Amino acid sequence: CTCVLLVYLIPMIYEVIVIGAGVEGSATGYYLTSRGTKNVLMLEQFDALHTRGSSHGGSRITRKAYDQPYFVKMMEEAFRLWSEIEQQSGKKLYHKTGILVFGDNNVESYKTSLQANNIPHKIMTGSEANREYNQQLQLPDDYLCIFEEYGGILRATIAVAAMQELFVRNGGQLLDCHKVTGLIPGPVVTIETNKGSFRAKKVIVTVGAWTNKLLETTGLTLPLKIKRTEALYWSTSNPEAFSSSKFPTFIHKKLVGDSVEEFYGLPIHEYPGLLKAGYHSAPEISDPDERDASSCDSATSEIVTEFIQKHFKGVTKKPSIVEICMYTETPDKGPFLDRHPFCHNVIIGAGFSGHGFKLAPIVGKILSEIALGHPPSYDLSPFKIDRFMKPKASL
Questions:
Q1: Are 99 and 153 in contact (CB under 8 A)?
Q2: Phi, psi (5° rounding) for residue 181?
Q3: Are 170 and 85 in contact (CB under 8 A)?
Q4: What pLDDT, in 10s, does the model give residues 74-101?
Q5: Which candidate among 156, 165, 244, 373 keeps its CA 20 to 30 Å from the CA of 313?
Q6: 94 has which bridge partners?
Q7: pLDDT digits (tens, 9 = 90+) for 199-219
């Protein structure tokens, strides 16, 4: 007689699956594998280095200057971790330029925070900053200006690629073009994708603007707004003066009406001869998959044009390049770094509100610590999901 041996394949159970391979997911995967975690999978719905989300492009600002003291402390370690990634990848990711924060009394909080954390900085009036940058600036004389020397530029897409490469080198598995369509909670979480299902003891969700689309499959909706923003690049009559060796990155904050108006910018670095600037406010969209359904937001371009013409010398009246990006915003502009409230082996990193790139190595560390049950390196109370949940009335 013939004996037939039936072999039943048991689906592999990963230790951790990271969903989303943008900067936060790539930093998380890198941190997990660099510290010895085995059997880690990263899933990305698009190509690994796509331009649909929040992590693409040639440049992002980095800095220690923050008006929240806890971010200043986190950025101290973030700089060390970015240096570690540079050393291990052999790629230059950080270009030091310094950063100039200028505006009205809303800049005072930066000064207070930097002083509290002993971060070297220089305080100037607008007129003093105009003298120091006499070929570039024309600020109101009474502006408060703070220069912090560690500010600079991170090479965005190259940084994401470096962390992905290190993740794979350290034994991680990266599968792009795998769109996650649902999560089935349990002691082992099942992740459903367009190319099959995967199982993991722990799942870390870092999908940016797609966060609520995914979490809704678990019955959770977070207070997040998806913003469609523009990065604008401007030609100047004096490119040498605005080069990254002569001019810092910058942030402008000023009270206008009942809200604080914030602009940001970078010296010429990414595109030859072009200064980068943007407005840290943007129209809300309901669906990240419809990002390009509308034409470029001319209102944003007009607002940035007015700011540029008022504060800078020799910059053209129209941008030469306009690029689109999305970010996801929470009500208090602080991220969520927390466990899912009723699926505790699902960990969420979301809502970075336009300033998550520079923090990515710390975000990766924190999300890894939560997933592995390690003591947190930082006070995570500012990043809890329940900070927006209304307390139940007492009986």
A1: no
A2: -105, -10
A3: no
A4: 999 999 999 999 999 999 999 999 999 9
A5: 156
A6: 154
A7: 999 999 999 999 999 999 999
